[in-house]
Design a protein that fits this description.
alpha/beta, Rossmann fold, eight-stranded mixed beta sheet, 16% strand
C-alpha cells in the first residue's frame, strides 16, 4: 500500500519532513518526454513532486534505447507522454499529471504553464520554435527556467529566473538571420567552455543541416540530477543559484567542472568569436 511519507522517507535528512510535504504541492512542467525529459520526470517523481505538466508528440523507437528512460521493447511505437504518465503513477499513485500529446504550440502554451512553479526545458535540441515560445511565456509569467543539456559525457546547466538575465538577452536569437544561426547561438550559449569538443571522435555525426547529433546515456543521467537539484533549490528557497549570464559545465570524461560567465550573453566578445568559428564549422554545408 502506498504512503507518501513512507515512499519518500529516504529523502528525509537531506530534506526536512516539512520540506518534503511542501514538494507535494508544487507543479513542474517539462516540454519533451524523450531523452532528458524522461530522466527529469523520473528523478522528480522519485523526489516526491506530485504535480506534472508533460508534453511530447513523439513515440518511442529503437534508436531511443541508448538514453531514454521510457524506451523499452515493450514501449516501441507507444506515445512518450502516455508511457511517462504511467511511470509517474507507478512511482506515486497520488500524483496528478496533465499530458499534452500534441506537443506545445501557441494554442496550448498558456494551459501548459498554468500554476507551474518551475519549467524544465526538455525539448529536442532542434525544436527552436517551440523552445523560444516556452521561454517567452515563462519570462512573461515569471516562471523560473532550468535548462540542462547533455553534452558528451557531461552536463551544461543554465538557469533563468525573474531576477536574472532573460533568455533573449543571453542567447540573442533575434540577432540571427537564419534558424541555423540561432541553433549555433543556442549551442555556444549552452556550452561556452566547449571542453567536450576534444573527445568527439566522429564530428560527422553532428549535422546541423540534417538536424541530428549524438547523445550518450551518461550525459542524460547527469542532466536529471543537475536539473532536479536546481528545481529543489528554487522550490524550497535554499541553496545558492547560479543564474544567467553564468552557468555550470561539468564533464565526467574530462574530470573537470567550470563555471562559465558571459556578461552580455552571446554579444560578449568571446561569444562573438565563438559564433563565427562555430558557424563556419557546423554550417559549412548550409546553402
Amino acid at each position: 500500500m502506498f504512503n507518501y511519507l513512507n515512499a519518500f522517507s529516504r529523502n528525509i535528512g537531506w530534506l526536512t519532513e516539512d520540506e518534503q510535504l511542501s514538494l507535494k504541492t508544487k507543479r513542474i512542467a517539462t516540454a519533451g518526454a524523450g531523452g532528458v525529459g524522461s530522466e527529469h520526470i523520473v528523478t522528480l517523481a522519485r523526489l516526491g513532486i506530485c504535480q506534472f505538466q508533460i508534453s511530447d508528440f513523439d513515440e518511442y523507437e529503437v534508436h531511443n534505447f541508448n538514453r531514454q528512460a521510457g524506451a523499452f521493447m515493450s514501449t516501441i511505437n507507444q506515445p512518450k507522454v502516455e508511457v511517462m504518465e504511467k511511470v509517474i503513477y507507478d512511482i506515486n499513485p497520488e500524483a496528478q499529471v496533465n499530458s499534452f500529446p500534441e506537443g506545445i504550440n501557441e494554442s496550448n502554451i498558456d494551459e501548459f504553464l498554468t500554476d507551474v512553479d518551475v519549467y524544465i526545458d526538455s525539448l529536442d535540441y532542434f525544436a527552436l520554435k517551440a523552445r523560444k515560445l516556452v521561454y517567452k511565456k515563462c519570462y512573461e509569467k515569471n516562471i523560473p527556467v532550468v535548462t540542462a543539456a547533455p553534452i558528451g559525457m557531461g552536463v551544461a546547466l543554465l538557469c533563468f529566473t525573474p531576477d536574472s538575465m532573460n533568455y533573449e538577452e543571453y542567447f540573442r536569437f533575434e540577432d540571427c538571420k537564419t534558424e541555423n544561426e540561432q541553433l549555433v547561438k543556442f549551442l555556444i550559449g549552452l556550452s561556452p567552455s566547449l571542453m567536450q569538443r576534444s573527445y568527439l571522435v566522429d564530428p560527422s555525426t553532428s549535422d546541423f543541416i540534417a538536424q541530428k547529433a549524438p547523445s550518450l546515456p551518461m550525459g542524460v543521467k547527469l542532466c536529471g540530477g543537475a536539473a532536479a537539484s536546481y528545481v529543489l533549490k528554487i522550490l524550497l528557497g535554499r541553496g545558492k543559484l547560479i543564474t544567467a549570464p553564468s552557468g555550470i559545465h561539468f564533464d565526467a570524461y574530462k574530470n573537470k567542472m567550470v563555471k562559465t560567465w558571459r556578461p552580455w550573453g552571446n554579444r560578449n566578445p568571446i561569444q562573438r568569436i565563438m559564433f563565427y568559428v562555430a558557424k563556419r564549422v557546423v554550417l559549412k554545408n548550409d546553402k
